[in-house]
Amino acid sequence: MGIPLAKIQERLGLKPDGIFGKQTLIKLTEALGLTKEQSALFFGRVAVETGNFAYDEENLNYSTNNLIKVFPNYFPTIESTKGYANNPIAIANKVYANRMGNGDEASGDGWKHRGFGAMQITGKDNQKDFFKYVGEKLDAEPNLIAKKYFIESAKYYFDKNKLWQYCTKVDKDSITKISKAVNLGN
């Protein structure tokens, strides 16, 4: 059951069961002002990115082997993973250091500004931009994206990256274009 989804359902006045059913789809489609095609592609992508609405923040708990596979520029060897493997805070602080408005590894910004929300809005600059988008204070805590703006963060991502242009019909081509735009995979 998706805990983030249950929170959204409760906000929409639905039974908060964490199941993405017909009523949830209808209410969210209306609330976001989406067409049927946009809704299908948008919520399909959100389901993929969140483990079917189960996760609202980035985990970053990687083993030695997965660190080398997922972050080869930061962890090119087994030796380079020492102190980082299965240590999400250390991993975030290393891989997100000195980019996206974050400070260096010692600043702790990588962990503080890890991905939150349905599309994992990551990095201090991106999160500040998101807070501006929703009219929130720019110094708001980043985890507010997961707790209050789970779905809105995905809409922001689609708006910012102009993904709605691929949402005019539901077909393999559209799905592939959106998948590649979101995470460079399909």
Question: Can you characterise this structure?
Answer:
- The chain is mainly α.
- It is 49% helix and 0% strand.
- The chain contains ten helices and no strands.
- It has helices spanning 3-11, 22-32, 36-49, 64-70, 88-95, 109-112, 124-134, 144-147, 150-160, 172-183.
- The longest helix is centred in the first third of the chain and has 14 residues, at 36-49.
- It is globular, with a radius of gyration of 17 Å.
Tally the helices: what do you get? 10
Strand content: under 5%
**DSSP summary, beta strand count:** 0
**What is the H/E string?**
HHHHHHHHHH
Q: For the report, how would you describe the main beta sheet? A: none
Helix content: 40-55%
User: What radius of gyration results from the CA coordinates?
Assistant: 17 Å
Could you tell me the mean pLDDT?
A: 94
Class based on secondary structure composition and strand pairing = mainly alpha
Sum up the overall morphology in one term.
Answer: globular
Q: Could you give the distance between the termini?
A: 25 Å
Q: Could you list the spans in which at least 5 consecutive residues all have pLDDT below 50?
A: none
